[in-house]
Amino acid sequence: MKFRVLVINPGSTSTKLAVMSEEGPLVEENVLHTGAWVTQLKTVAQLDYRKAAVLEFLSRHGFDVRDLDAVVGRGGLLRPLSSGTYLVNDAMIEDLRNEVGGSHASNMGGLLAASVARPYGLPAFVVDPVSVDEYWDYSRISGLPCLPRKSLLHALNMKQAARKAARELGRDLEDLFLVIAHLGSGFSVSPCYHGRLVDANNSNEEGPFTVERAGTLPSRVILRLCREIGEPRRVRFLLISEAGMFGYLGTKDAREVEKKLSDPKWALVYRAMAYQVAREIGAMASVAPEMPDAVVITGGLARSQTFIDVVKERTSFIGPHLVYPGEDEMACLAQGAIRVLSGEEQAREYPERGRTV
Description:
Elements: E1 5-10, E2 14-21, E3 24-32, H1 37-40, H2 47-60, E4 70-74, E5 85-87, H3 90-98, H4 107-117, E6 124-127, H5 137-140, H6 155-169, E7 177-183, E8 187-193, E9 196-197, H7 219-229, H8 232-241, H9 244-249, H10 254-258, H11 264-284, E10 294-299, H12 305-315, E11 321-325, H13 329-341, E12 348-349
Parallel strand pairs: 1-4, 4-6, 5-12, 7-10, 10-11
Antiparallel strand pairs: 1-2, 2-3, 5-6, 7-8, 8-9
């Protein structure tokens, strides 16, 4: 049986939409939002406008909601939870509306999925939100009792890459120890131990510097920024949007950098970024008593052979490297829903208030 799943992936000024089956997209489109409401309304207050765009997309391509088997949305900033496909229930809707984890366009994913699916009795899902938290207790200790380390990582793409690696290795994911590096605008490096992401650099706060983020910084630097800039929001914006490769070179485009590697400064910064990724992979390879079965590299920067070569030459001793360039959030979301519809997995129930992993 072929399933038809509507996939909804909201961004700040657009919504990626697709109707997908096991074989891939039947129709796919990135709907741009140009109305004044995009800037005037708070994220979740845009729900009615976004829903109208979703229904218009279906109608324009000859689909009716009744033609679907499920609707799946990108998971938002929810409470900590285990990896998996979650049914959008009343508790999740309430948390998304109240933005318990913060304001972000992805919070509309589950809300839109439910608002489209529920009137027709269809299931609505989210898959592997960024709030996936499978940390060991060791991983939560920061060195400052009042500030535990928090899980924040690119779980959707990383879990998909882990499944690909398991298939390529001919093993069950639950039997493997993988170190996974997602390299996008943010970098997430995590040990995937027996199927669980048990530690990671929070890509907004720690780890390698990225194309736009500062990564781990000395405490004295943070104190100095707070003194000199003062406004916490401005400091945060600097650290996660104007730092890293952009801070040094004035560009966030790795392709542009690769064209200028004959310039010693550009080469140094680019290779330093790869060096820091390798260092983080090495750190995450040390968390278990055995050596990893493989290092898995994914995300947009995995397309850069120059970058990957620098990482590999420093981490080849750890194990074989499996490289899956790019990311396909739409396919990841659809496949998560289809695994539940086909009976391969069971949908998870969103945790009640106060429950942690």
